[in-house]
Structures are given as structure tokens and as C-alpha cells.
Amino acid sequence: MRWIQKKTPNQQAINSLATQLGIDPVLTTLLLHRGIDTFEKAKDFFRPNLNQLHNPFLMKDMQLAVDRILQAVANQETIMVFGDYDVDGTTAVALLSSYLLTLHPNVVTYIPDRYKEGYGISYAGIDFAEDNDIELIIALDCGIKAVDKVEYARQKNIDFIICDHHRPGDTIPNAVAVLDPKQKDCFYPFDELSGCGVGFKLAQAISNTLENPFEELIPYLDLLAISIAADIVPMNGENRILAYHGLKIINTHPRPGIKAIIDTLNKSTLTITDVVFTIAPRINAAGRMKQGIHAVELLTATDIELAKEYAQNIDTYNSDRKELDKKITHEALQQIRENNEEQNSANVVYCETWHKGVIGIVASRLIETYYKPTLVFTKSGTKLAASARSVIGFDIYNALEACSEHIEQFGGHKYAAGLTLVPEKYQDFKNAFENVVKNTLPKQLTTPEIRIDTEVDLTNLTPKFYRILSQFAPFGPTNMKPVFKATALRDNGYGKRIGKTTNDTDLPEHLRLQIVYGADQKTYNAIGFGMGEKLEAIQNSESFDAVFTLEENNWNGYSSLQLLLKDLHIN
Q1: Which CATH number fits domain 339-446: 3.30.565.10, 3.30.479.30, 1.10.443.10, 3.10.310.30?
Q2: For 169-186, how does the pLDDT look when each residue is reduced to its tens digit (9 = 90+)?
Q3: What is the dihedral of CA 359, 360, 362, 367, to 10 degrees?
Q4: Binning pLDDT at 50, 70 and 90, where does residue 96 land?
Q5: In the CATH hierarchy, which top-level class contains the domain 56-313?
Q6: Which helix (DSSP H) or strand (DSSP E) does residue 499 occupy?
Q7: Are strands 454-455 and 484-491 parallel, antiparallel or unpaired?
Q8: Is beta strand 449-452 parallel, antiparallel or unpaired with respect to 2-5?
Q9: Could you give the residue range(s) of every CATH 3.90.1640.30 domain in the chain?
Q10: Average pLDDT over every residue of 56-73
Q11: Least CB-packed of 139, 236, 418, 466 within 10 Å?
Q12: CB 101 within 8 A of CB 302
């Protein structure tokens, strides 16, 4: 693993900000890395304020969208709220449909079937709208490339409002309004909202127009925090403000559906990490294993007993998803080895029986073994569908664009995308993608990297230091949990392997150490998940260097600081 340490900011700037704020210079180094170089910026960072949210009408077409929705309300039209089947899409549908129902009774929700309809706006969804005399569809977390489908709807006298956050294509759909801050001619100050975030800005604009207090929107922030965490959008600007306050709602007044999930976790306070790894996978499991609409039913439930029933069903879907994920990952790794493709520049695998709902997870799993851009294909109707995942620093969306002659449809982000193609094009696409990656992926990006914020003296890692460090949360892209480096460490002889045994060695897979550091030989607790095999080398070395994050370990009512090891270098 490559260790890359960030450049140390100007020492005078570090000391000056440390004096102004009265905190450790290591903490001001972290702030300066995040572009926070004044007392006022630090105040805004540590105390995210909802008053700092931008005026929603700065977004292109917002007034058109609000006018059309209020027209539908006035005319008693039925409004369809349509969204993608992932966490971002289902939270967006739950948020906007719940809000609209407070203004207007004629609101229906629609989540496409992942297997029958595929990603995004579907012809089946439009036909459903026509059959039910629906004249307005609001599409969330999708639609920015649905030029033909929006035109199909227009021919049926159905209007579209698109709320998306993906990159637009060359042609923008001919909708009543297109809300997407990534449009070139949209000058909204923050263009990294989640799909649910764009839906929230629409709700905010309607609320402003009706001259309602902003406080009526606060109960929806739990959904927004989940979408921001799950969709891995940058954790800065409006996203950080919304996620910060959304986490407060999750931990104090969560809606029944979210409370039903939390009640099974045996945890008093949830962090953004808990949202990513416990709440989001369960919500996602509905669309992966059954129907995304089940997630919307959970998130919009008003009765706690009904919510518990929905949560139990979704927990079952999540267990099924884990089993499939494990099975298909094993088969995909076997395919790579059997085809002698370990040395390829990219992983591209296919099996027509693989479950479409988990191929994105499998793609991420393959990267853990073979660190390279990865596509996992399966059969989807008469087409092949794939989920694409990338490695840090490589734009997989651009790579797909370079192979677009072989692709029927694709969309996504720099690090995650989806595509479909006809079976006859699979091999041509695979060859083309391999060549693009081979010719454009820099060699240094083929080794996983760890970005280190700064080197530290362990004696400075006090409870006060940790209390301030905790206020850097919520963490996410552009505001990742700080990673530290410490050198000249020794094990005090009580290090051991813990946890489940590995298949290869029949020894516990994790590492627990008591690190001796400094002239006073003070000890520090550390744990390294999946690092058990390093114990012998550590015990036989004079010293080692470590890269780690800092966490609080609570055990039997006693709290202590603990180093969560990310990697070790033996000296």
C-alpha cells in the first residue's frame, strides 16, 4: 500500500490559527487541509448552520418547477413521484412524496423494477401514468439523459420535472423543468447535491413560495442525511450542513421506518459510518432483492408497528443479499483466475445467472482482491447490464465514454457507473475497455493508496484532542476521517491475534497491540482488522511505523482512546 502524506501547510498559518482557536496545531493543520484558514470559517465548519443553505431559486428552472407543481395542486391533478431504486432514489421519493402529501392528497409513488424496467425513467412507468390519468411526473435521482422517454411522455400529454444530480449528456430532455446543478448553464453555488438533495431544494422552494417556516422541512433531514452518506457525495458545503442536522434527527426524532431499523442495532448514537454500513444497505436491499418500493413504504410509514414489520422484511432481504454477494464474488474471482486475466488492466466478468441486484457490490469486492477498474455483467432481459466501479484517481465514467460505440446506455459518476449493451457487443466492449484502461491508467494508481493527513506525537492524542477531532464529523469525501502517521513504535510483548480464524492459516485474523511509545514508555491500545498476519514481524522487529485513525473504545462502561490501524511498515 502506498503512503502519501499531504503537504504540510505554512507553519506560521498553522500556529496563527491554533492561537486564534486555542487548539492543538495538529488540528489546525487538518483545518487548513480543508481550506479552513480563518476563525470565521472554522466557526462555520464546527457549527454547521441551516441559515447558510442557498436560495433554492438560484437553481436553473426552479421557478418553472414550482409553478407547475402548484398548478397541479390547484387543479387537483395526480402527481407521480418517480425515483431510482437505490438509497438516494428511494429516500428522495420518500421525502418529496411525504412533503407533497402535506399540501395535496393526490400523490402516488413509483419505483421502477430493477429487473423488468432497468435504471431510470421507464416506458412502463410512463404507461402507468397514462393508464391512471396522471399528467405530471417528478423524476428524482434520474432522468437527465432520458431524452426519448420524456418525449414519449410529451406525446401522451404527460409533463416531466426532472430532479437529477448526474452529469448531463449533450442534449437535455424537453421537460417542463430540469433541476440539475451539473448543467453547464446552471449557476447554483453548490453542484454536488445528492439526488435526494435536489428533491429537498424543490421542497424548500415550494415551502418558500407558500411562505411557510423552514422548520416544517427539518423532519425530512433524516432521509437527506442517509442519501448523502449512501451516495458518497462530497461532505462539504450544503451536504455537510444537511448531513450534520440530518444525523441529529436520526439520533433524536427519527421517522418510524428509520427508528425500526435503529432499534435492531443496539446502539445509542449513530454516526455517518453507521448510516453507510447499517442503515443504507438495508434500504438498498429492497431494490436489490425485491422491489425498491418496499423501501419507500418503510421510509414513509407513520405507524411504528407497521414500520417494524417492513423493517423485518427488509432485514431478511439484506441477509439474502449478503449470501448472494459472497457466492457471486467467489464465482467472479474464480472466473478471473480460470481465464488467466489476473494481469489484465481491468476486471471485466460476466455470468448470465448472476443476480443483478448485487453486481455493484461484487464489483467493489473484486477491487479489494484485484485493485483495478472493474465491471460485473449479468443478463437483463435481452440485454447485458453491468455495474462499474473504479480505483482512486481513475474516472471510470470517462473510460466508458471512450467505449460508447459499443454501449447502448450508460450513466453515473467518476467512481461508479452502470451500463447496458447488446450481448453481441460484449467481447468488443471488453477489449475496448481493457485497451482504454491500459493506455490511460497511470501505474501508480494500480496500488492502493493511503492518504495521510499528518504525522503525530502520540503523547498529544489526549481526550481533549479527540473531543475536538470528533467535531470534524460528519465525515465523507473532501472531509474524510483524519489519518495519522506515527513512527518508532514498539509492541510491549502483549500483542496478539484475535477474532475469527482465517481459511488460510487457521489463526485469528485481527491484530490487537499495546504500543510502547516515547521516552516515558507509555502504552497505547491499537487494533488492526485483517492484519493478524503482521504480528510475528512486529514482535521480531526493533520498531515499526503505523498509519491509523483515532477512535473511542467503550468497554464495560470504561472509555479509552484507541488507534484503529490502517497499515504498518516494519523497520
Answers
A1: 3.10.310.30
A2: 899 999 999 999 999 999
A3: 140
A4: very high
A5: alpha beta
A6: strand 496-501
A7: parallel
A8: parallel
A9: 56-313
A10: 98
A11: 466
A12: no
